[in-house]
Design a protein that fits this description.
By secondary structure, the chain is of the alpha/beta class. The chain has 10 helices and 14 strands.
Length: 274
């Protein structure tokens, strides 16, 4: 019997309009009635998930943000793993001196999101996540974080493919042993500390919040490379139809496309067996 469920958000849980659909909301509410926690696991920052939690009526449940780098409950930080400041400094220096090859850098720590300017990429993320960034030069954020001895929970690099390729090669060559570099699209790099993953986030959360629940008693849904480890490790890893082949390869089940309520449909199957 499965006692807890985890789900990625973008490309997995949300419907065709990047919103929660009625069937998804209904099935999560059915889980709530059975006292089965439904936990959001995402590369997003926490406040980019609060409106989804509210719609699902799970505001009291913990969150796994930044691909596992930041695990929180309503009242405390369960786990926090930042990207070291020296790496952030090198990346900002590279970008500041890139001229026409400069890319957009979004810097995240806890519930703070900083952008250099409200450019195309910032506005796109703002629309997709329903969250407003703070406009502060990357160099100023770095200066402030140095004083506070803070790093980034996540860095997002966005730009034209060729420019992003250059940044990826630089980071992989110089810090590949310290960073996770996720390319969900050719125009994106999501950067996190190599020590973390969605699976480590789940393990920290279970240990701290649900010590009586084992990993093999968990269900998880996902679609992308950063979901692969999580999907392969839990008791029942479920890939949506639109998932990467690598994710499907380690999944124990495949459900419908995220635009066809794949998570909701599979939750309904599970509920019928409880």
């Amino acid at each position: 019997m499965y006692k807890i469920a985890f789900s990625d958000i973008d490309g997995t849980l949300l419907g065709p309009e990047r919103e929660l659909t009625t069937p998804t909301i209904e099935q999560v509410k059915n889980l709530n009635k059975k006292n089965i926690p439904f936990i959001l696991v995402s590369s997003r920052m926490p406040k980019q998930m609060y409106h989804l939690q509210e719609d699902l009526e799970i505001l009291e449940t913990p969150l796994i943000a930044y691909n596992g780098a930041y695990v929180i409950t309503k009242t405390e930080v369960v786990h926090s793993e930042e990207i070291p400041l020296n790496i952030l400094e090198e990346l900002i220096h590279l970008n500041e001196n890139a001229g026409d090859n400069r890319v957009h850098l979004s810097l995240f720590n806890a519930n703070n999101w900083y952008v250099d300017t409200m450019d195309y990429w910032a506005k796109r993320e703002q629309t997709n996540t329903k969250t407003d960034p703070e406009v502060v030069p990357n160099t100023e954020v770095l200066k402030s974080w140095k004083k506070e001895n803070k790093g980034a929970h996540k860095i997002m690099c966005m730009g034209e493919k060729e420019k992003i390729d250059t940044v990826y090669e630089f980071l992989d060559e110089n810090f590949g042993d310290q960073l996770h570099l996720y390319r969900s699209k050719d125009t994106y790099i999501e950067i996190a500390n190599k020590k973390v993953s969605k699976l480590t986030g789940i393990e920290k959360l279970l240990q701290h919040c649900y010590p009586s629940i084992k990993l093999e008693e968990a269900v998880a849904f996902g679609d992308n490379y950063n979901d692969e480890e999580m999907i392969g490790a839990v008791g029942l890893g479920v890939a949506v139809e639109n998932a990467r082949n690598e994710v499907k390869a380690v999944a124990k089940a495949i459900t419908q496309h995220h635009k066809e309520d794949g998570v909701a449909n599979y939750l309904k199957l599970i509920m019928e067996k409880l």
